[in-house]
């Protein structure tokens, strides 16, 4: 959608994004077949299908936010806020909007994945923490010592992206709980020198963190839904043999 508005060609899914989309689509299709083949009295299949399709949409929106932020970043050439033209200030504001939208979506999407995993594998994470996050779900996997291959893969993915996730989390927390993340950078600079020009944050570094966050989300989704699909088919084959 955003690519069309920006005059860019539609996205062609590839790499880890395509893998994540494909694995989620397979599980959604599998759930639909189960609903058609069997009665879904408690609507569990329907709920999981809706959640899975919601994750597909959320991933699409996250990728678009990163793309739009990167698109507008190209128009920001001044190193200081005071040196920007009115037009460039507008481009910078649009970059900030989509960048912030992106890093908030990283953690929102992970928490949605945590909700799906908690339901799929009956982890009962809410008994540990009423309002749990994705990272609480990972700890619950380890605590229960169930589905160890999936738990270990998700934990390894999380650990391999520790630094960019920490950077994004700090900015997310500043944005949600304290003040606008970019204004916090400005405030820090004002403390250094009241009359100095405000230098822009490292836009490229921040965009790279967001790109890494997107990649981490894609790999986590791919691992979770690939494993779920494999487990489903394994259980179905066992039932047939019985």
Can you describe what's shown?
The longest helix has 39 residues. About 3% of the residues have low confidence. This protein has 242 residues and is an all-alpha fold. Helices cover 76% and strands 0% of the residues. It has one domain. Helix 3 runs antiparallel to helix 9, helix 4 runs parallel beside helix 5 and helix 6 packs antiparallel against helix 9. Keywords: Coiled coil.
Give the end-to-end Cα distance, rounded to a whole number of Å: 48 Å
Q: Could you state the order of secondary-structure elements as H and E?
A: HHHHHHHHH
Averaged pLDDT: 88
% residues in beta strands: under 5%
Spans of at least 5 consecutive residues whose pLDDT stays below 50 are 187-194
Gross geometry: elongated
Q: Can you tell me the number of structural domains?
A: 1
Number of strands: 0
List the total number of helices: 9
Q: Radius of gyration in whole Å, from Cα?
A: 21 Å
Protein structure class: mainly alpha
The helical percent reads over 70%
Q: Report the sheet with the most strands, covering strand number, pairing sense and barrel closure.
A: none
Organism: Paenibacillus auburnensis
Pfam families: HEPN_Cthe2314
InterPro entries: cNMP-bd_dom (IPR000595), HEPN_Cthe2314 (IPR041394)
Keywords: Coiled coil
List the helices and strands and how they pair.
Blueprint: H1 2-5, H2 15-37, H3 44-73, H4 86-120, H5 134-144, H6 148-160, H7 162-178, H8 181-192, H9 203-241
Helix pairs in contact: 2-3, 2-9, 3-4, 3-9, 4-5, 4-7, 4-9, 6-9, 7-9
Characterize this entry briefly.
The chain has 9 helices and no strands. With 242 residues, the protein is mostly helical. The chain is elongated.
